[in-house]
Prior knowledge:
alpha/beta; four-stranded mixed β-sheet; 16 helices; 18 strands; globular
Amino acid sequence: MDITRFLELPVTIRKEVYFHLNGSFTHLNQQFTNTSLLSLISSLATPPFHSKNNEQLREKLYPTYAPYLEAFAFNSNLIDQWLSYSSWLRYDAIVIDCMRLNHLYEGSLIGPVDWIFLGGKIKLAYFDKFYLLQVWFSYQEYAKWIMEGGKDGDLILETEYLRFNTECFKPNMMIETYNVMENRKLLGFVSDVFFGEDEIEDDIFEEKDTLQKENNSIDEEISDALNTLESVENGTYKKRKTSSKIPTMSSKLNDKPLTKIIENLHKFKNIRNLFVRGDALYETMINAHGIRQVGRKVKYVVKTRTRTMQLLQLKYPTRFHVADFSRWVNLREVHMSGIEHADLNEFVLPKACKSLTISNSQNIIWWDIMGKISNFLPEKHRFEHSCYPLNASVQTCSSLENCAHRKLTKLKEDSITQDDLVRCRKEIWKIIFPLNYIQLNNVFSISSGTIVVPNAMYENHRIQLFGKSNINELIVI
Length: 477
């Protein structure tokens, strides 16, 4: 391929090419796909062969990159190939051009760039979706080659996509990286922070269940207190032994490096996007219900800075009745992915939040809108039904009898008085307030297979349905 001619192509064409690369600049990621699983197994079954050159590379380079390669130690051939690429890939013209366009599109092309600690120095690095390190640069190199080196469009010096990802580090490296960044005053360049925790998922629920039961028994405690007061007055009071153990919601969250980052999150003064993976961190950082513990709560100033929140791999975000985001006063977007079960009736969002996206999730209970507006609908109200294809390019069915698409059901405005119609729509907006955009992408199960949305949201294409779903009817009022 003629590199010069490729780089002279319009930005829109190069952007599409890089988008399909999906952040992988080599063929190494193919070893993780299902199509090459057999070849991977066969390679593992045979003893790895190390050439003299590979042995020299391992001896010279592996100790430096070991923290980011140990997760792939099961595949010796991959390590050898990665080490052979590592010396020159970061200087490749195509790679640098891709990073420039990613900067131009503010990280939306291939994703955020992470701060890491490599070779005793702070670097900016890009990882693919398998967390395999691709390229890295010093901040000076990144500023000169990526931020200032591009010739396409206007010069953009803002870096609203640089991320501090706790999943990139070993515990000791996390603290070391944080300390160096704090000393060098680099925390202000971080806009995204990612928290991930693989353990204690069940423990967090057991402890919070205990706390919930204690809250529910408050009436009994008040009754005991009144009985005690009465017995004191009667002179029959006997002191009882009390337990000194106070259950805490997150006492099992003992990852000290992680809790230190949480405690000092306010020092990331440019934080805009917060990523949280796992129930334990979600229940301590986001949905703590007012429970405060040093090192396990997010300071209010962080909640005022956060604009976007992404919640990943949660089992049951409304397990304890309410998913309360109201303290995140400037939160504008909520993205949820990998949710097992959630009840949207239990979500409390701040006034600034306008967008909700749910993707790759299992069981979602939609708002009980019809139950709330049934009192405003007269007995003679009517609906009109039509075909609503999954894809806008698909032609609608002329007859609903043999239609295999989902149905679009609209309330006939002439079957209801104007006052009742206004009351209905006002009640609907009150229920889904403050949202004005909802996107569902591969939400496999919606309660009853029916969703109800306001007419304005539907007409302005602010309700988006993508991928697979059991939704068979969309009701518009």
